[in-house]
UniProtKB/TrEMBL annotation:
It comes from the Bacteria. It comes from Aquisalinus luteolus. Gene3D superfamilies: Uncharacterised protein PF13773, DUF4170. This is DUF4170 domain-containing protein. InterPro entries: DUF4170. Pfam families: DUF4170.
Length: 79
C-alpha cells in the first residue's frame, strides 16, 4: 500500500447478545475485540473465522465496523 492510498480501516469485534434478534450485548465488559484490519477482505476473513468458531451459540455475534467511514465521513481524505 502506498502512502497516497486511503487507509480503509475495519474493526472486527463481537460478543454475546441478550437477544439474537437485537444488537444489544449481554455484557460489554466481555466484548471480543478481534482486531483492526487495513481492508475489508482481511476483516471479512477474521470475521468469518470468529463467526465459524461460535456457530453453535445463537447468541454470539461478530461485526465488521467500517472505521474509515467514521474517520472520514465525507470521503474526501481530509480530516
Amino acid at each position: 500500500m502506498s502512502d497516497k492510498e486511503p487507509q480503509l480501516l475495519h474493526l472486527v469485534f463481537g460478543g454475546e447478545l441478550e437477544n439474537p434478534a437485537e444488537a444489544r450485548f449481554k455484557n460489554i465488559d466481555e466484548l471480543d475485540i478481534v482486531g483492526i484490519y487495513p481492508n475489508y477482505a482481511l476483516a471479512e476473513k477474521a470475521w468469518r473465522g470468529k463467526a465459524q468458531q461460535t456457530v453453535d451459540n445463537a447468541h454470539m455475534r461478530y461485526f465488521i465496523v467500517h472505521m474509515h467511514r467514521f474517520l472520514d465521513p465525507d470521503g474526501d481524505g481530509k480530516f
